[in-house]
Design a protein that fits this description.
Order of helices and strands: HHHHHHHH
CATH superfamily: LemA-like domain
Structural class: mainly alpha
Strand content: under 5%
Radius of gyration: 24 Å
Number of strands: 0
Number of helices: 8
CATH class: Mainly Alpha
CATH topology: de novo design (two linked rop proteins)
CATH architecture: Up-down Bundle
Shape: elongated
Number of domains: 1
């Protein structure tokens, strides 16, 4: 009887060890931590925008449309509640990523316009802000990559047998990840035109 009880306990321990519950917990926590870092870097970028817009406005006030576009994109980013629960709602996650993409595009247009203003490009404050923005964009890329890896590990656990059974029982679901905004544009081969005359 006693040997039978020990055998049952050992069998249950082996089954619980292979059920994936602890892996689901640890990978879920890794996702939360990496998501917090993504949000931190996006917030850092959003905090730089007003200073950048004010400096550009001082030199290029006539670029109202571009400046307004950046300000509105930042406002849309700020209007989305970036809570930890966001990563459990695929539609909310998509809206957040779309808003961040709009801000990235608006900032890219702003920096393109700056090329027309040599005085602005040589301004120390602008150069410092631009360097901070570039550094922040790099940090965003690193943070997003860490998040993508954490989600991949978690999603594999959620979908693999036998941990998928544990995931169903405890309500663990696949989490959304970052995707390329325009996959078709990236997949299209670049067009190169060698017929254009060379610049002297």
């Amino acid at each position: 009887m006693r040997k039978g009880l020990i055998l049952v306990v050992l069998l249950l321990s082996a089954l619980l060890g292979g059920c994936g519950y602890n892996t689901l917990q640890s990978t879920d926590e890794q996702i939360k931590a990496s998501w917090a870092e993504v949000l931190n870097q996006y917030q850092r970028r959003a905090d730089l925008v007003p200073n950048l817009v004010n400096v550009v406005k001082g030199f290029a006030a006539q670029e109202q449309q571009v400046l307004l576009g950046v300000t509105e994109a930042r406002a849309r980013v700020g209007s989305i509640q970036a809570t930890p629960e966001l990563i459990n709602d695929e539609q909310a996650f998509a809206r957040f990523i779309a808003a961040q993409g709009e801000l990235s595009s608006a900032l890219a247009r702003l920096l393109l316009v700056v090329e027309n203003y040599p005085q602005l490009k040589s301004d120390t404050l602008f150069r410092d802000l631009q360097a901070q923005l570039e550094g922040t964009e790099n940090r965003i890329t690193v943070a997003r990559n860490r998040y993508i890896q954490a989600v991949q590990e978690y999603n594999v656990t959620v979908r693999s047998f036998p941990s998928n059974l544990t995931a169903m029982v405890f309500g663990f679901k696949v989490k959304p990840s970052f995707t390329v905004e325009d996959e078709k544009a990236i997949a299209a081969p670049p067009k190169v035109d060698f017929s254009a005359p060379a610049q002297p």
